What we know:
Blueprint: H1 9-31, H2 36-43, H3 47-56, E1 62-63, E2 67-71, H4 78-90, E3 95-98, H5 109-122, E4 126-136, E5 141-146, E6 157-160, E7 174-176, E8 178-181, E9 184-187, H6 189-197, E10 207-209, E11 215-216, E12 219-221, E13 236-240, E14 248-251, E15 254-257, H7 258-270, E16 276-277, H8 280-307, H9 312-320, H10 322-346, E17 348-349, H11 352-379, H12 383-386
Amino acid sequence: MNWKVFFHRDHWIVTILSFVFMGVLAYVTVNVDFLNPIEQAFSNYSLSDMYYQIDRQGSELETSELITIVDMTDYYYRGDLAEILMKINDMEPQAVGVDIIFEGVRDDAVGNELLQDAVKELGDKAIFTMKLRDYDEDKECFTHVTRSFFADSINVNQGYANFPDNMEARNIRDYTVTQQLNDSAVYSFPYMVAHLMDENIQPTDKVLHIDYSNVAFPVVKASELDEHEDLITGHILMVGTMHEEQDMHLSPIGKMAGLEMQTYALKTILERKVIRDSPEWANYLIAFIVCFLIELSLYALGLFSSKFDKKTFIAFFDKSGLLTTIVVVLWLICINWIGYVVFKKSGIYFDTVLILALVAMLIAARELYEAFIQSWAINHKNKFIESSIFKED
């Protein structure tokens, strides 16, 4: 066998064509309005979601020994909420993050006053949420903010609860530490809670990945605090609602409350866990190498099947495309497995979605190039056509 044929120019051309097709598809889906849903579907898909699902299958969840979630779903009156916050304070937690925005001064004057007293008692150990609004694309900043009513009269620590895309993304994977509110820098809710525990944690303006690793947080109902004092005293408490439908969002591990997402972000910051995206140039280089290897595999498969073309079952598998499908699927399984191992061991996520898309384009590029060579060979004879490995004998 002439091994030089495995590095024939035709393999390079097919691989490059797959990138050309992918570029055309990307341009069309972005610039043609009715194809925008396709572009959005690709942008909202990440194999890291599958990696987290794999990580959770067949293994017991590790329970956090530092962070406890306090569920206030069943409490609506400010007086009751104030009583719960006072009880929490009496149990001496290390830090308290309250993911509830108490908007406006309601008619319940007694409840408002009790709540303000509870906030004062919590003091510097508590962080309250606020929500950034009205992003100005030109100025690259938010212009308005929604805070709790007592923030104007009491000096409270606050952090924004917004995730990237202002909680409009269909699957929340990322968080930020700092945003711009007009001329001022403001910090996120989980970062502010983490900073109470460790002042050495430094802010960053990057968009970071939340680590949804195999960990669960104990959840204590507000009505059962006395029964779980061991999960309150000395712990970081994340206080909010766990079962309000309007605050439920999609995550890589399923639908969950915004409070729980904030807690995973807090854990990520405290552990200084950085999940890095591989550089874009590395993604394209890896994708090119993989596509080239798959192209060689498909060529080798063609040589193999041609030797047994008189065998009925081999001919069937070859002509039906099942052999090609099997080879491609095996390659993709191998690539995804390698991607998972790299993600798990080093916290690096390389864009296997790009590889999947390019492999799909590779099949189309291969068939088109082969059809071009064979059709032109009928009436045209030149060195390029005659030397092609795709030319029929």
